[in-house]
Design a protein that fits this description.
alpha+beta, four-stranded antiparallel beta sheet, 9 helices, about 45% helix, about 25% strand
Length: about 290
């Protein structure tokens, strides 16, 4: 924003994002001589002027901030005369962060007009942050399964398409595993859907623990799951499948006992280059298993 650049042109600024549940402000942007030190320091609510503004949700203008008893110096930065504006970013009655402007020097100051302008900018910034958070939350909900937290059916095909496109450049294989829980309908019918849901969550956790951090794990619907592993050949994919089966064999579900899973796999581009065809190959292998 050009207006804020004019106000801050002879000073610096910092923006913090609030984690209200933890009472913590995390630095997300610093235009400052000591930016590296600023970005390393998380600020607690009520810590320094910044924390004071966050806790009380009140903007602060201090033209001799270094003399204020509430001031806390960030480790690794000098104690020096400065003027400070600290404004909480509030939207929909929620604290989103804090916006700070600084000017260093003995005789420097911010005017009341600049303070008012900074507050107006902070209002707009708070709304923008809130909108961005809402959009990110909605996108996450659209991509994930609410029960297990895994990616959903729609995300599976998007990730598989992207993985195969990348494979055409890297010439590395993409392995796809399809899994389902054997006799899952019987578990639901005999023990109830609550136990069935617990079993689905158990399998989801087992899948997360059996694959690499960058592998994509999805719940495709019902008791069916899928795993996408880029740069993974048939030997490695088989090892992962065996690890998943072994993990499930070790789990004794109360009242149900041991539950088994069937796993099938396919490799792209060896078996298919089209995402849906490759998934169908893996599913056919799963049905055979």
């Amino acid at each position: 924003n050009m207006t804020m650049q004019v106000i801050a042109q002879d000073g610096s600024l910092t923006i913090y994002e609030a984690d209200e549940s933890q009472g913590i402000l995390n630095p997300v942007l610093a235009r400052h001589e000591w930016a590296e030190q600023v970005m390393r320091k998380r600020v607690r609510f009520d810590e320094g002027i910044t924390g004071w503004a966050a806790r009380r949700r009140e903007p602060v203008l201090l033209n001799q901030a270094h003399l204020d008893a509430r001031v806390k110096t960030i480790p690794g930065t000098p104690v020096e005369p400065e003027a400070l504006i600290s404004i909480p970013l509030v939207a929909r009655s929620q604290i989103k962060g804090v916006f700070n402007l600084y000017r260093a020097g003995v005789d420097v100051e911010f005017t009341d007009a600049e303070f008012e302008l900074a507050k107006r900018f902070a209002d707009a910034a708070a709304l923008a942050i809130d909108n961005a958070q809402i959009r990110a939350r909605l996108e996450h909900q659209a991509q994930t399964d609410s029960l297990t937290g895994l990616f959903n059916h729609r995300s599976f095909h998007e990730h598989l398409r992207n993985a195969l496109q990348d494979a055409s450049q890297t010439h590395l294989p993409v392995a796809v595993l399809m899994l389902d829980i054997d006799d899952f309908k019987r578990v639901n019918d005999v023990h109830g859907h609550g136990v069935g849901d617990e079993l689905l969550v158990t399998l989801a956790d087992a899948l997360r623990g059996a694959v690499r951090p960058d592998d994509i794990v999805c719940r495709l619907g019902g008791e069916e799951f899928g795993v996408i592993m880029s740069g993974c050949d048939g030997i490695d994919a088989t090892a992962v499948a065996e690890r998943i089966v072994a993990r499930m064999d070790e789990i004794d579900t109360p009242g149900v006992g041991t539950v088994t899973v069937s796993v099938g796999g396919a490799l792209g581009p060896e078996h298919a280059m089209n995402p849906r065809e490759l998934a169908a190959c893996a599913e056919a292998a799963m049905m055979t298993a």
